[in-house]
Write a structure and sequence with these properties.
CATH architecture of the largest domain: 3-Layer(aba) Sandwich
Oligomer: single chain
Distance between the termini: 38 Å
Shape: globular
Radius of gyration: 18 Å
Number of helices: 9
Length: 268
């Protein structure tokens, strides 16, 4: 039987519900740059199909009739906005506007206790990751992760498998020796393309994403007094995602087992 050797986490929306803070930070940055338009929740959900903040802003600016100039002008303007947006976002985190999602700290502590290595594979920046980890974890924080793959290292954003390939190389493990914890279809597709089994924790911004092929889709990782809700997959009798469940998932059948009484989570 293949033994679970590592868990690789996505960051935004997975470790913490950061997406609304990101959206607000984008809008605050737009205002500082004299852009009157803002991203509604519905608009932001649509734009999340594009991985990476700079890429998201660039695509949005190109779609606006009022945006003129060369492609380089647009990209440089997007970069300036994104740099300011990231500063605003980190200020919000430091102000205490964030908490870990249910079950995240518990699972991380269980993995450390059992000698399972931890990794991060994300399309966000190293500075954003470090600020978030410092805000939601105890003193060990970022030092507890053996591999942190970010957009500063890997320019190919999810659904490219590059960020997961880097994390695997850093962890010195094979794809079938780990589990990815994700929250978006792009992240799920990146893990899948790398041959890594995924567990998905959905939230309000990813309710309609396509998670076909995921081993388990739940509303959160769960706590003993706050069980998860199964959307699809086989939870092996568990009511929260723990190391034992991940080991069962890794050793189980290749195909995700769909619950008949639960709705599919697919893109509209």
């Amino acid at each position: 039987m293949v033994k679970l050797k590592a868990i690789i986490f996505d960051v935004d929306g997975t470790l913490a519900n950061t997406e609304e803070i990101h959206r607000q930070s984008f809008n605050e940055a737009f205002a500082e740059f004299g852009i009157k338009d803002t991203w509604s929740v519905e608009e932001y959900i649509r734009l999340l199909a594009i991985s990476g903040g700079k890429e998201r802003i660039t695509a949005w600016l190109r779609s606006r009739d009022s945006m003129s100039g060369t492609d380089m002008d647009v990209r440089e303007f997007a970069l300036r906005i994104h740099q300011r947006k990231s500063e605003i976002y980190r200020d919000h985190l430091r102000a205490g506007h964030i908490a870990p999602r249910p079950g995240v700290v518990r699972l991380i502590n269980e993995a450390r206790r059992d000698g399972i290595r931890l990794g991060i594979a994300t399309s966000t920046s190293r500075s954003n990751v470090e600020t978030l980890l410092d805000c939601i974890l105890e003193q060990e924080g970022r030092s507890g992760f053996d591999a942190i793959a970010t957009s500063d290292i890997i320019t190919d954003k999810k659904p490219s498998p590059s960020v997961y390939q880097f994390a695997l190389a850093k962890l010195c493990i094979a794809p079938d020796e780990c589990i990815a914890i994700e929250d978006t279809s792009n992240g799920h597709r990146a893990a899948l393309a790398c041959g890594i089994a995924s567990v998905i924790t959905i939230h309000e911004f990813t309710l309609d994403n396509d998670f076909t092929g995921a081993k388990l889709v739940v509303d959160q990782l769960g706590e003993p007094d706050r069980p998860f809700r199964i959307i699809s997959g086989n939870a092996h009798g568990k009511n929260n995602v723990d190391v034992d469940l991940l080991q069962h998932i890794l050793a189980g059948p290749k195909q995700c087992e769909q619950r008949r009484d639960a709705p599919s989570v697919v893109a509209k």
